[in-house]
Each structure stands twice: as structure tokens, then as C-alpha cells.
Amino acid sequence: MVTRIQRRCTASGLVLLAATALLATPADAQENFYKGKTVNLVVGYGTGGGYDVYARLVAKHMARFIPGNPTVVVQNMPGAGSLRAVNYIYNVAPKDGTAFAMFSSSMPVRSILGGNKSVQFDSLKLTWLGSSSSFAGDAYLLVVRGDAAGSTIDAVRRPDGPLLVIGSSGPGSSSYDIPAVLRDTIGLRYKMVAGYPGSADLFLAMERNETEARMVNLTGLKAVKADWLKPGSPYKILVQFGRKTRIGDLPDVPTAQELALNASARGLINLVEIPFELSRPFAAPPGVPADRARILQTAFRDAHRDPQLIAEARNLDLDISPIGPDEVLAALKSVDKADPNHLEYLRKLYAGAKE
Known about the structure:
The protein has helices at 4-34, 50-62, 83-91, 107-113, 153-157, 174-186, 199-207, 218-225, 256-259, 263-273, 290-305, 307-315, 325-333, 340-350; strands spanning 38-43, 71-76, 99-102, 127-131, 140-145, 164-167, 190-193, 213-217, 235-241, 281-284. By secondary structure, the chain is α/β, with parallel strands linked by helices. It has two domains: 32-135 and 278-350, D-Maltodextrin-Binding Protein, domain 2 (3-Layer(aba) Sandwich); 140-274, D-Maltodextrin-Binding Protein, domain 2, CATH 3.40.190.10. The strands form three sheets. The protein has a five-stranded mixed beta sheet with strand order 2-1-3-10-4, sandwiched between helices. A three-stranded antiparallel beta sheet has the order 8-5-9, with helices on both faces. Strands 6-7 form a two-stranded parallel sheet. Helix 2 (50-62) links the parallel strand 1 (38-43) and strand 2. Helix 6 (174-186) packs antiparallel against helix 10 (263-273). The termini are far apart. Mean pLDDT is 90; it is low at 8-22.
């Protein structure tokens, strides 16, 4: 016979078990899901460049903050200035929380502008994790060989001056698009040589004198070619982009804003610089289950607060000034407030990007 005390104990035990299960299920479920799994971090550029360095740093440390501690593996997928990678993550990659991507900061603006069939994603529907850098301690630089005929701003702006030979990965990349913006806003005269697979190839092209210049982030330059910044280096920096004021490391290098030909040109520069607020963006596919999206977003945030990541980034001279998904979306939505003529300019500029 079951006594009243036994019934009470049994009932209390069942309630306690149910409550414990209810509290433990979400965390346990995610740990069980991720434990032993591999999470792919797709990078839209080749190995050795600034994006690749950031991606590998994030992959190394973010895994520790995901329940179950999965292995995070970097998969390089260069092509069309990272358009290939973002199209892949949006349309092909699994939407279960086991894949996310890093791509050019200019890519999210493309879907907002519209008008390009190669852009097969909606940046406002991506599952945003955030950006490792908001450019607080970085700048996008036009670096030239010191022995180039156009090794000064005056030379490359002079109507009868030499054309600066600039290397890039191709249409759709910042290395291709920003020189065009500089042409139309500060008067830069150049010849573009496109098709280099990644940043390492662009550096090598300059060293071999195949090209005379390239665009590169200051942090990326510090990470792989720090000697280019030393006194007496055979390389020079002509312009810094993505900043309203000169960065402290380069007090003698003018910003594009300072060199703008007129007020309209300065307004266009302001628009094009918006993506630099999310200069190292990370996003997962649309449709990731909400609980796993939160896991990835939280892990991304916590990794960037982690002393180990911060110390390693400091050793690599990387700018860690992270923003979260809400700030990314706010920056993208601000594009709608720009001058319609400037938006049309960007549509035409980006129309050449191919998958």
C-alpha cells in the first residue's frame, strides 16, 4: 500500500525532476547539438590577408564560448571580392548553426542598393553576429611603391600626370571599388589590374613591380607587412579612407574627406564609408534557429571581450572594436538616408561585380 507520505514524496520528486529538466533543457540541448561537431567559418578571401587573419583569430577563440566546444574550421572561399562567399552562406550553407561567414564590408550594402543579379542575398535577413572592428583604430590605405612615377598625391591627381597602376582582386572588392570612388571624389588617376586571388598575391605583385599600388587596411598591413610602415621603407601611404579624422599612427597622411574636390564629393565619401563601421563583418545564414543564433551571437560577443583574444589581437596589431548585430543593422539601414544621386552612383559602381 502506498502511504500518503510516499505519494507526497513521489509527487514532489516528479515536480522537482520536471523543473530541473525544464531549466536544463536549452543549455543541454545546445551542448548536445554542438558537442563533437565542426562549425565552418567561410572567409571570402584567400589565406594570408587581413580578413583571413581576423577569421582565424575568431575561430580559435570563439569555439571556447559555444556550448559543447565544437571545432571551428576556417574555409577560404575567394571570388568576386567575397561575393561568392556571401552568396554561398546565404543560399547553400546549412542553416542549423554550423556555418557562418566573414566577407567584405561593402557586400551588405549591395543588396540594399539592388540592381545587381549577381547579388543573391538580402543582407537584412542574414543572421548577424557582429563585426570585430568598427574602424575605431583602423584605416583603409592607398599604399604605393616609392619608386612609382605617381608616388605623391599631386602626381596622381595631375591631369597630365602618370596613371598609378593599382592591383585588386576584382569588381565587388574594396580593393577595386574604392579607387574608383577616389577617382571621382579626389581626382585619383589610375589603371586597374584585377584578378589577384587574395591579399598575399597583391602584396607579392607590388614587390615584383607588377603593380605600383594597392588598397589595404592598416591593421592588415601591420599584421603581414609591418616593415612597410618603418622609416626608410620603399613604400608610401598616400590616402587614408574610412575615417573622418587622421589616425594617430599616420598623422601626416590626409584622409579622403580632406582631399574631396567639393561638398558633393565629400557626401559620397561619407556614404561609401558607412560599411567601414562594420569593417570585419560576420554573419550566419538566414533561418538559423533562434536559440542557436543567440548561442553564436553570444559566443561572438564574449570571445571579443576575452583577455586571450584581446592580447593575441594586440600582438598582431589588429583593431578590436566590436559591434553587435543590432549596430550592424542600424548602420545598414542608414544607407537609405543618403542622397539618391549618391545611391545611384553606388548602384552603377557595384553593377560590375560578378559571382
